């Protein structure tokens, strides 16, 4: 990443038609007769219901212990991310326009979370397997498969049963810490229940932001925003910050926000996603697939991230030249800082002054190593006690050292707080003076590491 110019990454994304809709308030899970608040899944299913991921069937049941079909999974992910853009799925013969899930599969296929089970089938009514569920979630989270390609799965006794096409996604989900398995197994070919999927997603997304406004409290875990006109201010996201498709064309502003994980941009238009006031994160990934988006870092945020941030571009980012990740031009600032750093380096006094000087009664030399670490400056050094000079001035050439410094007068027995005064001289001119606190110790006799008599 070059620091001396504005960094603008031109991304290509697919055209967006339509607008995001806001779902009405979701009921509580306890309103469903087949929800058991004493079961292991209670918290996760409650969160899934409250955030609109799981809804009841035509009979008013939640069916937490039932397996989830591929069509139902598509609908759940669409609700989670606020997906709204559709595309043609006429190629898939087992999906009809009259099916309740037709639009959901159109949206999932456009977002890229779903592919067909073959060139002409989608198998929407088939129970989704655990490895399929891990695959579509990894795509939604835009996990970097290369980053996790060496994830060790040897702790799972059934790792060999993972299909080759699913293996990179399973490695990513395990490597990212989102899947721990059950009883030492991944059970990749087993169907996943609605409750199990709710638990997986509950482990992944800590908070959903579904209402516009300003948020000022820090978050633990990944945060998923699925509406626009949101401002995060003076807070930390301890995880990934994901801007869902539901942000659409609206602005999102991050003001003095620290994201410990990634900023993942599925939504946000050219109006744009603003990173202001020292906002920082180690990685930003723009993956919007339905229209252009700009992610703009102001001066302070650019200074906060310029030397470390990774900027990612998804494979589908090819169509919209207006899409950019823009950093403030800080080349002048960096040049000034470099000059300042050099000036500070040139002005430094590099010297060793011992914390303690030792001498015996009647001696005139206080023992302690004085060393000049400069390559071109001469140092003049003397000690004072209570503001009065008690030693001669020692002169140290560049790179020289002394084993002690000579007193002006004999000092009485005792311990003295002293100050070492170091003056640097370059080319006959005084460069600067440094004062270092030290001590002088006068005793009748010292045995400084020698053998006892």
Automatic annotation (TrEMBL):
Record PROSITE patterns: SLH
The SLH domain, residue ranges: 28-91, 92-151, 153-215
TM helices/strands, residue ranges: none
Range of residues in the leader sequence: 1-25
Protein name as annotated: S-layer homology domain-containing protein
Organism: Candidatus Avoscillospira avicola
Keyword annotations of the record: Repeat, Signal
UniProt keyword annotation of Protein biosynthesis present: no
């Amino acid at each position: 990443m070059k620091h001396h110019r504005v960094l603008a990454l031109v991304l290509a994304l697919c055209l967006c038609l339509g607008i995001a809709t806001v779902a009405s308030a979701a009921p509580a899970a306890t309103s469903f007769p087949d929800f058991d608040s004493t079961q292991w899944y209670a918290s996760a299913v409650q969160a899934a219901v409250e955030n609109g991921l799981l809804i009841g069937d035509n009979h008013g049941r939640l069916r937490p212990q039932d397996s989830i079909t591929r069509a139902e999974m598509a609908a759940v992910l669409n609700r989670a991310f606020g997906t709204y853009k559709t595309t043609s799925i006429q190629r898939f013969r087992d999906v009809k326009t009259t099916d309740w899930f037709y639009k959901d599969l159109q949206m999932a296929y456009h977002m890229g979370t779903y592919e067909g089970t073959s060139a002409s089938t989608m198998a929407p009514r088939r129970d989704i397997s655990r490895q399929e569920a891990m695959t579509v979630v990894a795509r939604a989270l835009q996990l970097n498969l290369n980053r996790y390609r060496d994830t060790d799965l040897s702790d799972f006794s059934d790792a060999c049963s993972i299909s080759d096409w699913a293996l990179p996604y399973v490695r990513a989900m395990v490597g990212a810490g989102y899947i721990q398995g059950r009883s030492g197994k991944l059970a990749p070919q087993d169907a996943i229940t609605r409750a199990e999927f709710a638990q997986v997603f509950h482990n992944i997304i800590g908070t959903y932001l579904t209402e516009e406004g300003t948020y000022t409290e820090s978050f633990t875990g990944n945060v998923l925003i699925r509406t626009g006109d949101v401002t995060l201010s003076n807070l930390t996201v301890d995880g990934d910050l994901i801007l869902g498709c539901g942000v659409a064309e609206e602005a999102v502003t991050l003001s003095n926000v620290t994201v410990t994980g990634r900023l993942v941009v599925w939504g946000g238009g050219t109006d744009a996603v603003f990173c202001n006031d020292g906002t920082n994160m180690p990685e930003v990934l723009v993956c919007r697939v339905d229209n252009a988006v700009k992610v703009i870092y102001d001066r302070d945020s650019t200074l906060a991230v310029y030397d470390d941030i990774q900027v990612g571009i998804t494979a589908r980012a090819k169509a919209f030249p207006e899409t950019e990740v823009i950093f403030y031009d800080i080349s002048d600032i960096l040049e000034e800082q470099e000059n300042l750093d050099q000036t500070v380096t040139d002005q430094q006094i590099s010297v060793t002054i011992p914390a303690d000087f030792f001498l015996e009664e009647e001696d005139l030399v206080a023992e302690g190593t004085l060393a000049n670490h400069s390559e071109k400056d001469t140092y003049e050094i003397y000690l004072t006690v209570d503001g009065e000079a008690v030693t001669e001035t020692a002169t140290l050439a560049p790179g020289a050292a002394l084993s002690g410094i000579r007193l002006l007068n004999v000092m009485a027995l005792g311990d003295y707080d002293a100050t070492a005064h170091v003056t640097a001289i370059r080319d006959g001119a005084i460069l600067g003076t440094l004062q270092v606190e030290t001590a002088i110790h006068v005793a009748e006799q010292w045995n400084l590491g020698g053998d006892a008599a």
